[in-house]
Automatic annotation (TrEMBL), chain A:
Name by which UniProt lists this protein: Potassium-transporting ATPase ATP-binding subunit
Record-annotated membrane-spanning stretches: 62-80, 86-105, 238-259, 271-295, 608-626, 641-660, 680-703
Disordered as annotated region, ranges: 1-33
All residue ranges annotated as the P-type ATPase A domain in the record: 126-227
Family that this chain belongs to: Belongs to the cation transport ATPase (P-type) (TC 3.A.3) family. Type IA subfamily.
Lineage: Bacteria, Bacillati, Actinomycetota, Actinomycetes, Kitasatosporales
Pfam assignment, any one: Hydrolase
UniProtKB/TrEMBL annotation, chain B:
Cited InterPro entries: KdpA (IPR004623)
Keywords, comma-separated and alphabetical: Cell membrane, Ion transport, Membrane, Potassium, Potassium transport, Transmembrane, Transmembrane helix, Transport
Domain of life: Bacteria
A Pfam family the protein falls into: KdpA
HAMAP family: KdpA (MF_00275)
Keyword Disulfide bond: no
Protein name: Potassium-transporting ATPase potassium-binding subunit
Record carries keyword Transmembrane: yes
Predominant place of localization: membrane
Quaternary data: The system is composed of three essential subunits: KdpA, KdpB and KdpC.
Organism: Streptomyces variabilis
Protein purpose: Part of the high-affinity ATP-driven potassium transport (or Kdp) system, which catalyzes the hydrolysis of ATP coupled with the electrogenic transport of potassium into the cytoplasm. This subunit binds the extracellular potassium ions and delivers the ions to the membrane domain of KdpB through an intramembrane tunnel.
Family as reported in the entry's similarity comment: Belongs to the KdpA family.
Membrane-crossing segments per the record: 61-80, 188-209, 261-281, 293-311, 386-406, 427-446, 493-513, 534-554
Length: 707, 565
């Protein structure tokens, strides 16, 4: 019966669990991720920033857009040499617009982060710390605190820096960081000792040992992250940039080598035309939006209250192939619940239900409440209030007795852990029915927790039946794991339960694998084993003993309620402390990569139509046959080139919302994703510019004196 | 039987023969490159060149082997030509001029076989047989070795491909260049070429060491005919995708290619190894399906080009074309329009460059197809070895874009495509377009090179564009018409061939080294499947679009301007 004792223990601590049942992944009908809002007004507000970014020292960071910028300068200079040439001026203007649109996309993406940073800064007002030196207390500015300093915070004080509570318990308002207004308890020792600078103590008094230097606190890092100041290009972004740069070089060569060929053919190409051709060919669409996509990806995490400490971690999230999920709170609801009343021979279910209910009225643990709820829902037993039964004596549940009960009218009813109840019955000279043991064993094997219900009355002390307590798998988890499997992600449930219990829950929840009786060392070993096979592992954790595993995992999401060691070790922090969010994080990571790939494909596919617009315009005069390539029937060479340039600029603005929101992502297999995105962005990218350029050409030809 | 039907039937026969041969040959080649044993003759060779065939090489060592061996090859061939006047068996031909000797030496070592000389009027038996024919074997074997090294980069370390004396292969090791080179020659090229030579002799190609014969002509007057070891050179010329003819007329000369059957057989030889090596690749990376996907990509492009070529050559309008039933100018009547179209496409889509008809005389669009075929980078199916590594580089690029679209850091064959890999692949695809476009633009901008053109207008421009495209892509065929034996062309085309061959090899081997150091990523449902038709389609699309976009302006001013006029 040792396992029973263990379970009962976990049940009793469950009574004090601070975790609210985290919301299960409620499913929006289309695309869980990517619901970011886009407000066109942001474009106007970000315009000044877009102009500021025209500084060549800023432009040079994006090779593609730097080429467009240089081209704009060149055409503008050439237009000055021939001021009467309206064509040159128009092209120059649209080239500048192309650059500005690109800057605008980035500025809008950054703008969203700035707003959040401003809110955070408000929390970071200069605080005065009450530092303990020796036995006295001195008042120093928060900025002068050093690691290891001890500070006192009382009700109403703002905590001056990140640290661990070393003395006392207090309720703390963390809404400045989490946005959650309900206060949280912080106490010395254990896994809830970390406090964050900028949060406010609401009651009681705590002593905090400072663990970070001023300027490197959690809030400082958050501000840097959301503002994008700490943004570094991620590995995949660098790789894509290289590819785009090399395509740019190829097209630069194709355009730069064209003049002698054209001269031989008998036509002279002006610098304006060459630059226009070049800008149309190089991948400006993706080049313009690349950095906005990256910033927006981080931003989508922030909107879900997840802080990624590096963009690298967000990308890694998309690559994750193994998810380690804690059973409690992630897969199952935080607490076990009564699922069934099972009578021993000679008793009825109703009798067990009645006795169970009575004996649980004084049990305020979630398990005890669930017994009362089950009795009401399944057996129609109205909840009786303790006052209703006169003369009844109530025995509350305690961790020591591990029983609760009631003495009503000569009947003494008890309910509790099997070991305790058996001892209680035997003490009173009663016997335990042999089938009670049989039922207990069956429940344990099925992964449940048995609670015995016993009574002592005129017939003596005896066991009436067994309450089957079950872990309740959160609604919708099975479907979620199904989706993850189709995405090629393996889920592993981590639990302290014995293998039998773990197996039963794992099967019910539909996870691929489980790790039972898991110690931090087991977790670490599992992560290393998966990584040795080339897999990327993601996990969540909150305790100090999770820290090594969080550091080892490719994506380690620390709960904000966790210790500072855990937060330090992970590469993301979930401010809501909701372990289910790991799944959303993976989806956001994938969405980020997909958006990049889709717009790259779109950008390259666009070029085909632009050639069909520009090449006949350039050469049909000397090689009339090439007019057959003018399949769009564009009205004049000038109009054709302008239409291509204008389309090229407008498509950037048109795609800003998409790059900020991200391409719609659905959890399906790679094959289906590729087929879908290739159809939309590949074929769409081929066809769309033919239509777009034709429409612009029609509009231009309406302008008198041009068409 | 109409000429169209004849062409289609020949195409089908060719495809059937290739389908039969590819699997066993590919599997055999995989065995050759993964075997532990050395043949006795190979041991003698290793002893002779002082190489240890069992040392595992990392990519820099492998590259040093490739470059050193090729440098010696160029030097030897150059000297052989410069000293021809003093060598026996030279049929009385004098030494070759320095610029032409440089061009020819580079041409044969780079597997290009661009010929700015007339074979029967310049090269004696010794240069042809001990110089050019030898390079026909070894330059092909070098290409295969580099391809195999790249394949090992993908395959290692999860499957041990070569045990070197029982020591396990460490990460980053790519095999041994000398072993790969020697085995390619001894176990693959020589046996196949021997069989092919016998077939060619049996069908009427000549094989002797006789001198120059003066032969009377039907209409009076005389002409000179050379003898020579033609059939043996012809066999390796096609099999090794070399293309350098014994005679100037190349495979349209009846001594090289006497009958319609030998014509089809020579096309078969051209395509045999490039297609088969996809199977070798599949076997070595442990998934024949991956090999099939690459094969399907190559075959799709090849069949598409053949169909286009037949269509433009058969359906061209104009009284002469209609009277002849197709564009017959510059084509041998004994082969016909269909077979000539298949040959032209096959020779330009592989880096062969042998011709049985004159590409300059194809219709404007037909000439464009031969040009575009080379511009694809010789990958469908491409040169022996070089075709495989070329298409694998493009596969890496395609996988990168497509991989992003499935939401993962892109990976190909279990290897992640990160910034280092993309950098190397991007450099690879930059080289040949840069060489072609810059040299062409220079030739057009300078006053003298254009004097070499025989034609004016768009067709004249095509001659020059074709020459550099052929050189930089190591094809070696000529558009005919251009007088390429000038100092300018000998030098610049020589440089284009040299850089177009070895600079990409640097990137290929560096990429192989980078891949070989990586731990493979396991395949899951979230992995982009690169062995499915969808990916093949994507790869074909990527190849056509990237190449098309690069060369569209140049093509527009040449073949398109001519063909659409």
């Amino acid at each position: 019966m040792t396992t029973d004792v263990k379970k009962q223990d976990s049940m009793s601590t469950g009574a004090f669990a601070p975790h609210q049942d985290p919301p299960t992944g409620h499913k929006a009908p289309e695309g869980r991720v990517g619901a970011g809002l886009f407000d066109p007004g942001q474009l106007v507000r970000s315009l000044p920033d877009a102009f500021r970014k025209l500084d060549p020292r800023v432009m040079v960071k994006s090779p593609v857009m730097f080429v467009v910028w240089s081209g704009s300068v060149l055409t503008t200079v050439f237009s000055f040499t021939d001021p009467g040439d309206w064509f040159g001026w128009t092209i120059s203007a649209w080239l500048w617009l192309t650059v500005i649109f690109a800057n605008l996309a980035e500025a809008v993406a950054e703008g969203r982060g700035k707003a959040q940073a401003d809110t955070l800064r408000k929390a970071k007002t200069d605080t005065v710390a009450r530092r303990i030196s020796g036995s006295t207390e001195e008042r120093v500015p928060g900025t002068e605190l050093r690691i290891g300093d001890l500070v006192v915070c009382e009700a109403g004080d703002v905590i001056p820096g990140d640290g661990d509570v070393v003395e006392g318990v207090a309720s703390v308002d963390e809404s400045a960081i989490t946005g959650e207004s309900a206060p949280v308890i912080r106490e010395s020792g254990g896994d809830r000792s970390a406090v964050t600078g900028g949060t406010k103590v609401l009651s009681d008094r705590i002593v905090v040992r400072i663990t970070t230097k001023p300027g490197e606190t959690f809030i400082d890092r958050m501000i840097n992250l959301v503002e994008g100041a700490a943004r570094q290009k991620t590995p995949n972004e660098i790789a894509l940039n290289i590819l785009l740069a090399s395509l740019t070089v190829v097209f630069l060569l194709a355009c730069a080598t064209l003049p002698p060929l054209a001269d031989y053919a008998g036509t002279h190409l002006t610098m304006v035309v060459l630059v226009a051709l070049l800008v149309c060919l190089i991948p400006t669409t993706i080049g313009a939006l690349l950095s906005a996509i990256g910033i927006a990806g981080m931003d989508r995490l922030v909107q879900r209250n997840v802080l990624a400490m590096s963009g690298r971690a967000v990308e890694a999230a998309g690559d994750v192939s193994t998810l380690l999920l804690d059973k409690t709170g992630t897969i199952t609801l935080g607490n076990r619940q009564a699922a069934e009343f099972m009578p021993v021979r000679g008793t009825t279910e109703a009798q067990v239900a009645d006795a169970a209910q009575l004996s649980s009225l004084a049990d305020e643990t979630p398990e005890g409440r669930s017994v009362v709820v089950l009795a009401k829902e399944e057996y129609g037993l109205r909840e009786r209030h303790q006052g209703e039964l006169a003369g009844a004596e109530w025995i509350a549940f305690t961790a020591q007795t591990r029983m609760s009960g009631a003495d009503v009218g000569g009947r003494r009813i008890r309910k509790g852990a099997a070991g305790s109840v058996v001892a209680w019955v035997e003490e009173r000279g009663g016997t335990v029915a042999p089938d009670a043991e049989e039922i207990t064993r069956r429940i344990s094997e099925a992964g449940g927790t048995p609670l015995l219900v016993a009574v002592e009355d005129a017939r003596g002390a005896r066991v009436l039946g067994v309450i089957h307590l079950k872990d309740v798998v959160k609604h919708g988890m099975r479907e979620r794991f199904e989706e993850l499997r189709s995405m090629g992600i393996k889920t592993v449930m981590i639990t302290g339960d014995n293998p039998l219990t773990a197996k039963a829950i794992a099967e019910e929840a539909g996870v691929d694998d489980f790790l039972a009786e898991a110690t931090p060392e087991d977790k670490m070993a599992l992560i290393k084993r998966e990584q040795a096979g080339g897999k990327l592992v993601a996990m969540t954790g909150d305790g100090t003993n999770d820290a090594p595993a969080l550091a080892q995992a490719d994506v380690g999401v620390a709960m904000n309620t966790g210790t500072s060691a855990a937060k330090e070790a992970g590469n993301m922090v979930d401010l809501d402390s909701n372990p289910t969010k790991l799944i959303e994080i993976v989806e956001i990571g994938k969405q980020l990569l997909i958006t990049r790939g889709a717009l790259t494909t779109f950008s390259i596919a666009n070029d085909v139509a632009k050639y069909f617009a520009i090449i006949p315009a350039l050469f049909a005069a000397v090689h009339p046959g090439l007019d057959k390539l003018n399949i769009m029937g564009l009205s004049s060479p000038d109009s054709a080139i302008m239409s291509a340039v204008i389309f090229n600029a407008l498509v950037i603005i048109a795609l800003v919302p998409l790059s900020l929101k991200g391409v719609r992502y659905r959890p399906v297999s790679a094959d289906k994703l590729l087929r879908r995105n290739l159809t939309i962005y590949g074929l769409g990218g081929l066809v769309a510019p033919f239509i777009g350029i034709k429409i612009i050409d029609l509009l231009i030809s309406l302008i008198p004196g041009i068409g | 039987m109409g000429p169209v039907l004849a062409g289609v039937l020949q195409l089908l026969a060719l495809m059937a023969a290739l389908a039969l041969a590819c699997k066993p040959l590919g599997a055999y080649m995989a065995k050759v490159y993964t075997s532990d044993k050395h043949l006795r003759v190979e041991k003698w060779i290793y002893k002779g060149i002082g190489a240890d065939p069992d040392t595992e090489m990392r990519w820099p060592a492998y590259l040093r082997g490739v470059l050193a061996f090729s440098a010696v090859g160029v030097l030897f061939l150059y000297l052989l030509q410069r000293l021809q006047g003093h060598l026996p068996g030279s049929l009385g031909f004098a030494a070759i001029d320095p610029d032409q000797a440089f061009n020819t030496a580079v041409s044969f070592v780079t597997n290009t076989n661009w010929q700015s000389y007339y074979g029967e009027q310049a090269m004696g038996h010794v240069v042809q047989t001990a110089g050019l024919a030898v390079q026909n074997f070894v330059s092909a074997a070098v290409g295969m070795a580099v391809a195999v090294a790249l394949v090992r980069g993908f395959a290692l370390p999860h499957s041990r491909l070569r045990s070197s004396g029982g020591t396990p292969i460490r990460t980053g090791e790519l095999g041994n260049f000398w072993a790969d080179l020697v085995r390619g020659v001894v176990r693959i090229l020589v046996p196949l070429a021997a069989v092919a030579a016998v077939v060619l002799v049996a069908c009427g190609a000549i094989q002797n060491f006789s001198g120059i014969h003066e032969v009377g002509q039907f209409m009076g007057g005389t002409q000179e005919w050379n003898g020579g070891a033609v059939a043996s050179q012809e066999a390796i010329k096609e099999l090794g995708t070399n293309g350098g003819g014994y005679f100037n007329a190349n495979s349209s000369h009846p001594f090289e290619n006497p009958t319609p059957f030998t014509n089809l057989f020579e096309i078969f030889l051209i395509l045999l190894i490039p297609f088969s090596i996809t199977r070798t690749f599949g076997s070595m990376v442990g998934s024949v399906r991956q090999g099939y996907a690459i094969l399907a990509t190559m075959a799709t492009i090849w069949v598409g080009f053949v169909a286009l070529m037949m269509w433009t050559e058969f359906s061209h309008h104009g009284p002469a074309f209609e009277a002849a039933g197709g564009a017959y100018e510059g084509k041998e009547v004994r082969f016909g329009v269909g077979a000539s179209s298949i040959f032209a496409v096959s020779t330009t889509l592989t880096s062969t460059g042998a011709v049985d008809s004159f590409h300059s005389s194809f219709t404007g669009l037909g000439g464009g197809i031969t040009l575009l075929g080379m511009m694809l980078g010789e990958i469908a199916p491409g040169g022996v070895g070089s075709g495989l590594y070329g298409i694998l580089i493009l596969a890496v690029i395609a996988v990168f874009i497509a991989g992003l679209m499935v939401g993962r850091t892109p990976e190909y064959l279990g290897k992640k495509i990160g910034s280092r890999e993309i950098k190397l692949a991007a450099c690879y695809i930059l080289i040949t377009p840069a060489l072609v476009l810059v040299f062409t633009a220079c030739a057009m901008a300078l006053p003298t090179p254009a004097n070499s053109m025989t034609n004016s207008g768009a067709h004249g421009f095509s001659e020059i564009l074709y020459a550099y495209t052929s050189g930089a892509n190591n094809n070696g065929s000529a558009f005919a018409g251009l007088n390429a034996d000038t100092q300018w062309f000998n030098t610049t085309i020589g440089l284009a061939m040299l850089l177009g061959r070895f600079v990409p090899m640097v990137f290929v081997l560096a990429l192989a080294g980078s891949l070989a150091e990586q731990k493979p990523v396991p395949v899951t449902a979230g992995t982009l499947r690169t062995d499915k038709p969808l990916y093949t389609g994507l790869l074909v699309g990527t190849i056509i679009i990237i190449t098309g976009l690069t060369y569209f302006p140049a093509l527009a001013l040449g073949p398109l301007a001519e063909g659409l006029a």
